[in-house]
Amino acid sequence: MSRTARTLSGGEAQRVRLATQIGSGLTGVLYVCDEPTVGLHPHDDHRLIGTLTRLRDMGNTVIVVEHDDAMMRAADHIVDLGPGAGEHGGKIVATGNVAEVMANEASLTGAYLSGRKRIPVPEERRPGNGKSIAVTGARENNLQGIDVEFPLGLLGCVTGVSGSGKSTLVYDILYKRLAQAVAQGRDRPGDHDEITGIEHIDKVVNIDQSPIGRTPRSNPATYTGAFTPIRELFATLPEARIRGYKPGRFSFNVKGGRCEACQGEGYIQIEMQFLPDVTVPCEICQGRRYNREALEVTLRDQSIADVLAMTVETALDFFWNYSRIRSKLETLRDVGLGYIRLGQPATTLSGGEAQRVKLSTELSRRATGRTLYLLDEPTTGLSFEDCAALLRVLHRLVDHGNSVLLIEHNLDLIKNADWIIDLGPGAGNRGGNLLAFGTPETLAQVEESHTGRYLRNALGVEAQVGVAD
């Protein structure tokens, strides 16, 4: 009971928050839960579902925003939005119980729930490049002095119930030590004896779901580096050259081309003394961020502000003949973000979208083949279709010769891994041991592993479906 809050894992903190509300025993209450299964292992899912059904039985209404398969199957009524994301979505595609949604041909969610669509198991597992990084004597938090080897050149996955020590091992020990060695990191790694094999990598990248920028000035075009060649292209247009405009003229961050009334933000913040601040579109530029002179330079009738208002898919068609811009936009489309706008403020992107913008930036960089990517639960907030897009990107990173290490509870990602390291068997003092390691098929045979038990079903269902086909 005396543990400090910051030592709790994501899944544990989530359940503490839920227990605060659920334990009150009220009736006639409408509970709204936004992805309560975040950070939870399938083993913990059924407990949560049991708690929510008890709340319902006491006379309450529970509305859950969720992508979790088990949670959807336990629901009495499902409302499926879509069909796509962004401007391709916003419609109600299907409503009803699980069977009705599964029977609806228009519903992507129904297609995955019914098995019409599925994320396949790879034909073969990668053997890796023969090199590895080994952690010996890991004993931070609840880790029991374990020795763990992380093979390189493949898609690795660390699994285990919520609170078994996965983040402690991968972030507090492995990432902080590698960051010290490779990138002059300042954070002190967790308690361990030593880490060997660091010489096999030259870069370590932690791709999390934190925002790509904390101000509305940051957007997907600036973050991925696509905006620089776009501005350079505008500076080469005849009208721009006659006027002597340089690429800086088409930046909304510096004086020259930006609207000075709102300083290139596109809107003005009005301070309300006793209320939250209100933002209104700038009256001078009407939210377009640029002054009249900058907007008079057009490429095929489109100004720089029009380009920022385009979706990635539209911009890809528009800039198809400009390879520098096209390559950056293609990777954004490949990670499933064809619907976001180039100038969309970073503050309006969800965690899953921000993470995929970072992934696309990494994909468009020249691969060294010696980079280690770490992702902590990348499927948070992602639907089945988004998970499939994410997997394609992760496989591409590994095919370029890099190594990817995930912490994950999602069985679709776990069954796609080449190598799994399973911690457990329980959480807290009952966890922190190395239970098993190997391919998903190996792990599925381990009796004492909770992950193995659920993986057996995932791989077994796959085999039966294959026979039926």
TrEMBL record:
Organism listed in the record: Geodia barretti
SUPFAM superfamilies, sorted: P-loop containing nucleoside triphosphate hydrolases
A GO term from the CC aspect: excinuclease repair complex
Protein name: UvrABC system protein A
Keyword Membrane belongs to the record: no
Positions of the ABC transporter domain: 128-450
Molecular-function GO term, any one: ATP hydrolysis activity
GO biological process: nucleotide-excision repair
Source superkingdom: Eukaryota
Subcellular location per the Swiss-Prot or TrEMBL entry: Cytoplasm
CDD domains per the UniProt record, alphabetical: ABC_UvrA_II (cd03271)
Keywords assigned by UniProt, alphabetized: ATP-binding, Cytoplasm, DNA damage, DNA excision, DNA repair, DNA-binding, Excision nuclease, Metal-binding, Nucleotide-binding, Repeat, Zinc, Zinc-finger
